[in-house]
Structure formats: C-alpha cells, structure tokens
What does this fold into?
Amino acid sequence: MGAKLEYITPSSEDNFKSDFNSVLEKIKGKKMFILSNPNNPTDILLLKPKKIKEILNQYPETVIVVNEAYYEYSGVTIVDLIRDYPNLIVLRIFSKAFSLAGLRVRYSIASSEIVDYLMKVHEPFPVTNLAYHAISASLDSLDYIRDVVKRIISEREYREFQSLNNVKPYPSATNFLLFWSGIKSLAR
It folds into this structure.
C-alpha cells in the first residue's frame, strides 16, 4: 500500500528497553504507530500503560495500535483507554493462550468509528466455520484456559534456569523465554 516502515530496535545490552524520548520522536509526523506489548521475540513489556497513555495524549492524530497477543500471560492491558482515545486500536489473538495458532483468528478492540471503518474493508467471511466453532468451544472453557495459563506462568519462573552455566533467561511476560548466552560462537 506504499507505506514507509520505520523500526525501533531496543538494545539487548539494556534488557531491550527503549529510550522513551526516542520513541516519542520517532512517532512524530507518522500516521500510525504499532507496538507489540509484550514484545516477540524479547518477551518483555516494552512500554507500561502509563507511557502508552502519554503517547496517546501527545499524538491524537496518529493511529496507535497496540498488539496484546500475550495479554493472558502479562495481565497488562490498555483496553480501558479505548473510550477516551478514539485513535487507539488494541489487537488480540486466539493463537497464544487459546492454543488456536493454526486458525490465525485475531480480533480488535477500538472505538466505534474505527470499527465501522474496519467493517467496510474486511473480507466478507473473515472467520471459517471451523474457526468459529473452535473459538466458541474455547470461550466455553475459560476456566480451563486460565488454569493452563497459570501453569505456564509458574513454569516460566522455574529457578533451574538461573543455575545454567553461561545462559541467563530474560524476565518474561509471555509464554516463552528468551535466553542470553555468554558462549562465543565457534563459527568462522
């Protein structure tokens, strides 16, 4: 569609934290800003809700899209800001906590104005019959899904990872872990 993409790449030397002022500067003049929060592959929250609210206040003309694909694992959301910020879109997916990755079913939460626009441009049948039934069954099993998420969260905290030689896990807000390795590559 002719969009020019710019990326903000956090440094692994600072646990993948971005300089917030640099982020604000990068957004200036842009039509859209997309943030995966928590981020993949770093598995950390890049910005806390308070900082996202600052972005929304500073850039009311920019569409701010926050991908909360790992919300069930992080417990951090900005959905409550939708009513106050018509330029905010929150994305979620049934792939992660609901274990429906093969179906590729996503959903968005946004102002009625944005939803009306999206309804004009979406495919006529965006969800297959199989996907509809799988999602419906998953939503009927929320207690089970919450139990699985709790188990995954407790397992990502296993202290055995801390004792590995030359390997350090980064703190995770997702269902996976990213490891730092002090082992130097043998490749030439």
The chain has one domain: 12-181. The chain has a mean pLDDT of 87. The longest strand covers residues 88-93. The beta strands are 32-36, 63-67, 88-93, 106-110, 167-169, 179-181.
